[in-house]
Amino acid sequence: MLFFDGSDARPLPLRQRKRLLREAFDFTGPLRFSSHRNGDGEKYYQLACARGWEGLIAKRATAPYQGGRSKDWLKFKCVREQEFVVGGFTEPNGSRMGFGALLLGYYDHGSLRFAGKVGTGYDTAMLRHLRGRLDELRVPATPFAEPVRERGTHWVRPELVVQVTFAEWTGDGKLRHGRFTGIRDDKSAGEVVREAG
Question: Where in the chain do CATH 2.40.50.140 domains reside?
Fold first, then answer.
């Protein structure tokens, strides 16, 4: 609540602004009021992630409203993590070297299902290293069971396994906000399946 009954509410502490907000609206149907939790933040965060929520926002209860970023308002995202098989890659754009994104999959009843792509999380050394490994695995045809509609694709034998964090699975079974975190030389590609959650 930034303004109320013609008055500027921004200088008021968060708790007071929330009190005004609760009084100003009838919270029914899709309109919901989020009550404050005053403790056990780590437990509540774990619960939020277990329930599949996007994350939590922590706000300083005594702080006035500030536009823009502030240490009085923090976002804690829930992230999922699992390994994926690399089935291809895209060409880099602009000044990027190595490749644009890895094309990822997992096995389902013996077929490599396309799970999306991951284009972030690499430093320059990793981009070079991975490109060298990918070039050694190049094949002429896609290893994925379904069509992959990405531009500038190159296919590889599905042998390389990587670890990826991501926000969630989309409705069509693709990763959202994936980030590369490392190579998994300890796991074979055939062991990689979609994990629950």
Answer: 80-191
Residue matched to tokens 């396994």: 161
Contact 104, 90 (CB under 8 A): no
Q: What is the identity of the amino acid at 43?
A: K
CA–CA–CA angle 125, 129, 130 (5° rounding): 120
* pLDDT tens by residue, 65-91: 988 888 888 888 877 889 999 999 999
The beta strands (E) that lie in 60-121 are given as: 73-77, 80-90, 102-108, 111-118
Tell me the per-residue pLDDT of 39-49, one tens digit each, with 9 for 90 and over.
888 888 888 87
Distance CA 85, CA 109 (A): 15
* CA–CA distance, 164 with 173 (Å, rounded to integer): 15
What class has domain 80-191?
mainly beta
Distance CA 158, CA 119 (A): 18
Q: Is 188 left (phi over 0), alpha (psi -120 to 50) or beta?
A: beta
